[in-house]
Amino acid sequence: MVVSTEMKMKEQGIKVPISMLREQFLFSSDAAEELKEAISKRNHELVYLTDFNLVDQVWKESRPKPPSKPVRVHDVKYAGLDVSSKLSSPRSELIDAGSAGIVVSMLDEVVWLLNLVIYLSFLDMLQ
Q1: I need a labelling partner for 88 at 20 to 30 A (CA). Which of 24, 80, 82, 112 fits?
Q2: How many other C-beta atoms lie within 10 A of the C-beta of residue 120?
């Protein structure tokens, strides 16, 4: 009989790391407890990481340096809409859906939404 990795994980349970460091705190304690309770029902365990940052562990020494030039606001004549106009549509949809907020984390979405221009040169990427 062939047993899939997914089946093995369900039987054994897995540990799900969650970073609780102050500088990258993404979960309130209530949300973390709710998540802990939900995954424990599937025989998994939430493991709080308070002594190191998972992102730093992945990047190690290969993390690129920040851009050398400042971020600036893109003029509306180039962006097409001002920031408040871009924010009004998602706000309306959130209200209609009964949601309190949204996380926008992809760089291209953030810079579009806030009309930002980030100059990344080839030299910045090599450093």
Answers
A1: 24
A2: 12
